[in-house]
Amino acid sequence: MADFFLHAFALVSSPSVLLLILIGVLFGIIGGSVPGFTVTMAILVVFPFTFAMDPVSGVSLMVSVFVGGYSGGIVSGVMLGIPGTPSSITTVYDGYPMALRGEPGRALGIGVAASFIGTVISVAVLVFFGPLLASFSMNFRPWEISALIIFALTLVAGLSNGALLKGMLAAALGLLITTVGYDRNSNLRFDFDLPVMSSGFEILPVMIGIFAFSQLMDNIEKLREEKTARQEVIPDISIPYGRIIRDIASQKVNTVRSSLIGSLIGALPGTGGTVANFISYDQAKKFSRHPERFGTGIPGGIIASEASNSAVAGGAFVPTLALGIPGDLPMAIMMGVLILHGITPGPLMFEQNPVLVGAIYASLLVGAVVMVLCQLLLVRWFARIALIPQQILVPAVLMLCAIGAYALNNNLFDIWVLFGFGIVGYLLWKAEVPLTPLILGVVLGNNLEQQLFRALDLDDSWLTFLTRPLSATFLALAVISVIVSLYQNRRIQQKTAINQ
Hints:
Strand order of the largest sheet: 1-2
Number of strands: 2
Largest sheet: 2 strands, antiparallel
Shape: globular
Mean pLDDT: 79
Strand content: under 5%
Distance between the termini: 61 Å
Radius of gyration: 22 Å
Order of helices and strands: HHHHHHHHEEHHHHHHHHHHHHHHH
Number of helices: 23
Structural class: mainly alpha
Helix content: over 70%
């Protein structure tokens, strides 16, 4: 294995391929940082350019976009309070408060460092345990994936900040939103006789509208005050490298745990970065000695989010390369690049094309290093977003959000969806309803419906969910997750009452 990896590393280290990796990482960072653009769209834009390339160059370019895109979401999440991609939602919870506190450089630095470590750990997992994970992921049929999604949905209890009932109602509303349009049997639901609603709502306009509007409307309200929090705190544009190293060192277990969660969930077909993001953040909160501090701007929350979503990049290659089963759309496009060059992913790929497999591993590692260098060189400029007056920043962000929503399908209706759900999100935020469970329901709703009905088509007995060991385990974890979250919420309320 060492021989073909060294050979592949030599190919990836050539000047032309390194230049492609640099371009791919930069484009991925930009794509991930623009709300609504996403990693998938960045990969789709780059995909045609690989047609005339050799396999190593084409794969290296695509992998670098993948790595850059997953780390790019931290920029808008920290600086604007708007997740650039669905897999960076929980980055906002602690990254944005830290930036508001006057430490955007620290928040971005922690996120970049965690992304790098997560990617490196995921590559190590891919290299040493790829075949084992591939065989394990074969056990995940519709029953197991449905149970895993249900487990992820139970995290609303821990992400509702004490408002459990409101959080559950918000999650139910999110699931309800995903039922608009055609169902799996081509029956129209909740379209209100409007043809534009027959295809349902796209996730990204809904997500951006709910997050962006509530945040931007809050900023507009602050403009009326004589002195806003942003004006009181002078942002620290410098990058405190020493403090970032201490922050990461103090969260060693959290970093490794979140990276492993991202690698494992990335290896499961049909899950992806969003599920890994929420589960790792929830686990970091559950294992913390001070769970009440999560959401106030602490390093542990940023590390859990960024390490997990970047680790998904390596884990997602496991089913794609070893089984020929892409877990999500970006991996399906990556598989298309391989097929385009006459390479068929599957169990024989490791024997027939070991150098190309090694090139993917090497591209992930080199891409991670380039990502860190690019982010640290540019982070000083990203942090200057905090100095832009709100009178200029708010309209500019709204315009970018609208462009991102329209570019998704070149559909004007998506812009109206963005603004409509923006108003809904703002009203819910004013009513102190947690928005995270709503987004979680929207993101996971379609997948849950598909997997649930696929399972019932194969076996119409609900008892199958309990007789299959893995699905029963995830359902048990869901129950435990709710109980632990209820206990933690009660403990936080008791501490708050004592402090008052």
